[in-house]
Amino acid sequence: MTTATERSVPKPVFTDAEAGAKEFPDSTARKFNYYSPQKRKQTHYEDVTVEVQPDPRHYLSQGWLYGFADGRGGYPLDWTVLKAWGSDRPVPERGPGSGGKGYDWPAHGWHEFRDPNEEWELSLYRYNANVVRQVNANVEAAKQAKAFEQWSPNWTRFVSQHVGAWMHVDHGLGLYLFANANRRGPTNMHNTAIAVNSMHLIRAAQDLALYQLTLSEEVEGFDGTAHLEAWNADPAWQGVREVAERLTAIDDWGEAIFAANVVFQPLIGELFRSQLVMQAAPRNGDFVTPTIVGAEEFDFSERDLRYTKALYELLTNDREFAEHNCRILNGWLANWVGLTVPAARALQPLWSQPDAKPVRFEDAFDRVKSRFAGIAEDLGLEIPKELER
């Protein structure tokens, strides 16, 4: 029997000079006082999001801890042309041993944004878990009740081609627009809300993909690959596809979120989901698809649009750069409405495909245009003439 020789390794020696070793009056506090809460009492949401992403204008006495190849560090404010008060303040000169905290908090107006949904990591997991649980329960109940057997061949084809095609929109925007913009936002409050938006869309794409697999097993003749041909070649989808791809190529994170949530989603997303699928499905004996599409509609209308309006309302009413921001946003509005309206109109042939028809396309489009106009007016922006094309 052999015995292992005990290895000689250095033993750690603690000197109380390590980060976090010092004790001070708030060492065990569960509430923090390094920021000003939006209301009289700070919330748990604020405690886990505010200043989690630091700012050298406030502290970080030695500057950013990391940087990019071009010399910029951290989260440059010029990643969008929009501005909040204090954006033009110079960053305090920093260096080893320079000390000082810089400007009083908040160092600039970007820090004033709060997500009205108060989303953070735990709330994201809980919400999406509940949505997936409900969607799965609806699909399982439909399978047990043999609900899919009453679908007509025409409606089966519509779901496989066109409802399936929408997952490409969700996947593309979620992964390549919102996930990308998440890294570019100027504060953790922005990036948390944008990341949640990204996860909503990625989850919705997965919901539709899994639904297509289920229907391939449950519905005779269901073609689970038909959405690929529709997305790649159907003339009705090519305008939507072009706009979606243009959206994913936007470099300015402020423009990306604005174009997607203020223009594209109201004029195309709600047109397709609420005015077509959710209206036509029950008339064609399908009570399952609306629950899946409706979950995504709720994500946008009650959560994602809510934080978007709060974000841009701050900028259009900014005490220093309101005029600058309104000019930029009105330009983006005219440009993206000009691209989106023709794409929305190209979807019109889809309204004639179900056996039992939904509301007329023109009536449906008037509804979403009115909805869009209300959002623009709430933000104090001009209704672009391109809306009437």
UniProtKB/TrEMBL annotation:
Its EC number is 1.14.13.227. The lineage of its organism: Bacteria, Bacillati, Actinomycetota, Actinomycetes, Micromonosporales. Residues 1-22 are annotated as: Disordered. InterPro entries: Ferritin-like_SF, Phenol_Hydrox, RNR-like. This is propane 2-monooxygenase. Keywords: Monooxygenase, Oxidoreductase. It is an enzyme of class 1 (oxidoreductase). The keyword Oxidoreductase applies. Transmembrane segments: none annotated.
